[in-house]
Protein: UDP-glucose 4-epimerase
Organism: Pseudomonas schmalbachii
Amino acid sequence: MTETVLVTGGAGYIGSHMTLSLLEAGIQVVVLDNLCNSTAESLRRIERICGKAPVFIQGDIRNNAILDNIFTEHRIDAVLHFAGLKAVGESVQKPLDYYSNNVAGSLNLYQAMARAGVFHLVFSSSATVYGEPEQMPISENAPIGTPTNPYGRSKLMVEELLKDLAHSDPRWSIALLRYFNPIGAHESGLIGEDPNGIPNNLLPYISQVSIGKLKELAVFGNDYSTRDGTGIRDYIHVVDLADGHLKALQAISTQSGIHVWNLGTGTGYSVLEMIKAFEHASGVPVPYRIAPRRPGDIAECWADPSKAARELGWQAKRGLEEMMLDTWRWQSGNPQGYME
Ligand code: NAD
Ligand code: UFG
């Protein structure tokens, strides 16, 4: 049985929702986060929601002394590894930072796990590893593509490293979770996505336009061969995503080897459909203009989530309306994010 887990990056967007879900499920959580893209306020908010708090250690996954100390002080059963950098554009400018945090950091963590005899791992991968897929929806059998940027390559490198690791030693039990596009926030409106600076992703951008923090959304291209010409993605509620991790954690506690699961809804929405759905949920208009395509973007991407349904008994429950309402509740209640 899983009693205590280490969540790296647990103060961040997905990690904070995960930490809350774990605490609510009665699992003890140790969070390791260097706060390079988050604040410890997210962890205080988690305590406000559920009355329980994780143990928090501020530190870097590249620091061996900190890692060894955590594994000595706590009886960790499994690690959920979210820590890393995730801005695609920035990764092109600062590849060394991305390979250092995402690849060297992951390697360091796995070495510390092996030293401590902890062999259960859930890794945050991304649909970006499929590159530009030929067929929709994308199943786990689809060929691995060629990511167009260092961020995507860092995820792919860690996936390959983990496959080698699992094949080298049957004690390892690893879930590679390929996320589609996580959005939304906890229904309390107390935790959510709080990007540094100008957001790169669609939903944080839309929501900052809606509260007047940004002037208008640039829609990156309306000449794709999609139903309205704008890009189509599979947006998944972050709380559903966290539920998927709980199920994956359960699964790897009883079976070894490496397992790949897509976490998506199976439904794609276009950028224009997302704008409309957000306006409907919030009652606030979102001004936008059509802009050139963003380099590296693909036309469409949505999941075949049937493997996770079959093997984990998991499927996303929350629809677009709920994703938008929860995003709006978080953004309108916290216009400055965690900075009150
Ligand atoms: P996030 O930036 O909100 O969270 C990442 C957390 O890791 C932050 O709190 C940051 O401070 C911490 N961190 C970064 N480098 C660290 C290091 N070296 N040591 C310790 N802590 C460190 O991002 P998120 O959206 O919550 O993403 C979590 C994971 O999921 C990432 O690995 C990301 O690549 C992956 N992912 C995210 C998306 C997405 O759209 N959000 C999609 C696919 C995969
Ligand atoms: N978009 C806009 N305007 C914006 C931002 C985005 O029109 O200001 C469009 C994009 O062109 C795309 C859609 O909205 O069609 C979604 O874009 P996001 O940036 O929100 O998400 P992506 O699908 O491009 O990227 C996400 C993650 C990456 C990951 C990738 C593949 O952010 O980390 O999925 O899994 F690599």
Notes: The domain at 4-184+235-265 is CATH 3.40.50.720 (Rossmann fold). Residues 192 and 289 are 26 Å apart (CA to CA). The chain has a mean pLDDT of 97. Residues 8-9, 11-15, 33-38, 60-62, 82-86, 101, 105, 124, 126, 179, 181-182 surround nicotinamide-adenine-dinucleotide (ligand 1) (CB under 6 Å).
